[in-house]
Specification:
With 211 residues, the protein is an alpha+beta fold. Helix content is 40%, strand content 18%. The strands form three sheets. The protein has a four-stranded antiparallel beta sheet, with helices on one face. It has a three-stranded parallel beta sheet with strand order 1-2-3, sandwiched between helices. The longest helix is centred in the middle third of the chain and has 15 residues. The model has no long low-confidence stretch (mean pLDDT 86).
């Protein structure tokens, strides 16, 4: 599951028991939580119930081998938002996660800044009508900027939202990926849309917004 989500472009943190999962989910703001209900140390339902009691309303996809009506009802009543029974197809798993992302924070399927257009459903990116090919990580970067048009995003913010909890902040991966993204989105087009705010981070905005 981690690998399939990462290959799709999502930043993923993994916890291998319920106690670790509860600690991560209690201290970090996630867009979606995927909870296996048969976890060691602290089962998934207890994790979800505790999070809800603490006021954490992050959408939760429960994953389990137990697929009876009683099991599904129990999971949903405990606070799970969706329920996926093993074994399942990876495509369905990714589709369920995307559905919860749209449900948790309503997202427009299509973003536009100037002549740059991003379709979040088909993951198609064009500028001035020209198709732009992006890697999954580049798309995740651009999508994050599209959700925060006009707002300066620091390196730390980008690391936490586009990579994961264990990301090594001592590397220059953010700078490298930003350079690749800007080459694809801005090179050969006018005006440039992604700007560097020296000493702070990056911002995506139309040229007129900074005038």
């Amino acid at each position: 599951m981690r690998r399939s989500l990462a290959e799709t472009g999502y930043a993923v943190d993994c916890a291998y028991d319920g106690e670790e999962g509860l600690a991560l989910a209690s201290t970090t703001d996630y867009d979606v939580i995927v909870a296996d209900l048969m976890l060691p140390k602290c089962d998934g339902l207890t994790v979800v119930k505790t999070l809800r009691q603490r006021g954490k309303m992050t959408p939760v996809l429960a994953v389990t081998a137990k697929g009876t009506v009683h099991d599904r009802v129990t999971g949903l009543n405990t606070g799970c938002d969706d329920y996926l029974v093993k074994p399942f197809a990876v495509a369905e798993f990714i589709a369920r996660v995307r559905s919860l992302l749209r449900r948790g924070v309503p997202q427009p399927p299509r973003f536009q800044v100037g002549d740059l257009v991003v379709d979040a459903i088909t993951r198609r990116v064009t500028r001035a009508g020209k198709l732009i090919e992006l890697t999954p990580k580049e798309f995740a970067l651009l999508e994050y900027f599209m959700h925060n048009v006009g707002h300066v995003l620091t390196k730390t913010m980008i690391e936490q939202h586009v990579w994961n909890y264990s990301f090594d902040s001592g590397t220059n991966l953010v700078e490298v990926h930003m350079s690749h993204l800007r080459n694809k989105v801005d090179r050969g087009f006018e005006p440039p849309l992604i700007q560097t705010v020296r000493g702070v981070g990056y911002v995506l905005q139309e040229a007129s917004a900074s005038a």
